[in-house]
Amino acid sequence: MTTAPRLTRPEGPGPQDFNLSRRGLAGLLTAGYAAYAYSADAAPIVTDADGLTVETVSVPENGGALPAYVARPAAAGRYAAVLVVCEVFGVHEHIRDLCRRLAKLGYVAIAPAFFVRADPDNQLAQTQDFALIQKIVGTARNEQVMGDVGATLAWLEQQPFVDRKRLAITGFCWGGAVVWMACARFPELKAGAAWYGRLSRPPATAFMGEDVRQWPLEIVGQLTAPVIGFYGGKDQGIPITDVEAMRAALRAAGKTESQLIVYPEAQHGFNADYRSSYNEAAAKDAWTRMLAHFAANHAAPGKARGWLFG
Predict the structure, then answer these.
(1) Domain count, the chain
(2) Residue 302 and residue 308: Cα distance in Å, rounded?
(3) Residue 197 near residue 178 (C-beta atoms within 8 A)
(4) Is 145 exposed, middle or buried (0-12, 13-18, 19+ CB in 10 A)?
């Protein structure tokens, strides 16, 4: 019997959490899910591409090209857009499925491959070696990631199917922290939804601690877009004290349109339906809250009124 990893920390599981048979590994690689995190007992949600245009595009960035997965409604029109920031496992099938779910609702959803420079062969989705995952992810420093976010937003603003006035961002795990940082950097973003993203600075010797940078708790006053954050009460890497500290910081800075929601029985990664940590009730509630947050902050889905093309 295959034992699923217990993903209860924002940096992913430790070696003791993982045990996957070769047969199970072959099946999940065929399906396109992250090898390190996949649970044999999970039943991942599968969203088809009917009525959608799905493609991989190249986003110009600093003289190079950043691959990005895009899912959008096939019907003509200008649509609100959501930048989807991946977990530490990169743009694997779960992230692509989330893009298709958003596209079915009337969004243009784009997931950039933030780790492509250090991982051109997509080892993140295939490996069982978390030390390798940490090494690859550790190369994506905050300034580089913010550059990629900026390049992706610029690409979206140039597309004839995007309403440039309705841009939002969401991210998961590693990507959850990116959401907070991006909403303090890019005023064109109307709203953000951060799923179990780290809030405080990790120890210097810990994973991601070597990057000399600010973290979400340090940039609250700089937020230009409201963020809704979703956290698990049983997350072993993001203590409730950090959540309460962020709430206090938001109040002190007058950022009353931002809020944090805690699901007491949820673990880290509770939206990841391919993991044993999936919590259906929390995931569905948070998804509904995310969509309402986007709609309340001028990033509603659907076709822009009075404008069609081609």
Answers:
(1) 1
(2) 12
(3) yes
(4) buried
C-alpha span between 138 and 133 (Å, rounded): 8
DSSP assignment letter at 5: P
| CATH code of the domain containing 286 | 3.40.50.1820
| Whether 115 contacts 137, CB under 8 Å | yes
In this prediction, residue 72 has a pLDDT band, given cuts at 50, 70 and 90, of very high
Strand order in 108-112's β-sheet?
A: 52-61, 64-73, 108-112, 79-85, 162-172, 189-195, 227-232, 259-263
| The pLDDT of residue 62 | 86
H or E stretch covering 289: helix 280-296
Q: Is 25 within the bounds of a domain?
A: no
**pLDDT tens across 26-63, in order?**
444 446 899 999 988 888 999 999 999 999 999 999 88
Contact status, residue 149 vs residue 186, Cβ threshold 8 Å: yes
If one counts every other C-beta atom within 10 angstroms of the C-beta of residue 256, the result is 9
Question: Which pLDDT tens digit goes with each residue over 280-308?
Answer: 999 999 999 999 999 999 999 987 643 33
Domain hosting residue 246, numbered range: 33-199+206-296
CA separation for the pair 180, 226 (Å, rounded)? 9
Reading the block at residue 228, the tokens are 């809704």
**pTM for the whole structure:** 0.90
What residues are labeled active site? 173, 235, 268
| Distance in Å from the first CA to the final CA of the chain | 54
**What six digits make up the tokens of 290?**
């995310």
User: What residues form DSSP beta bridges with 57?
Assistant: 68
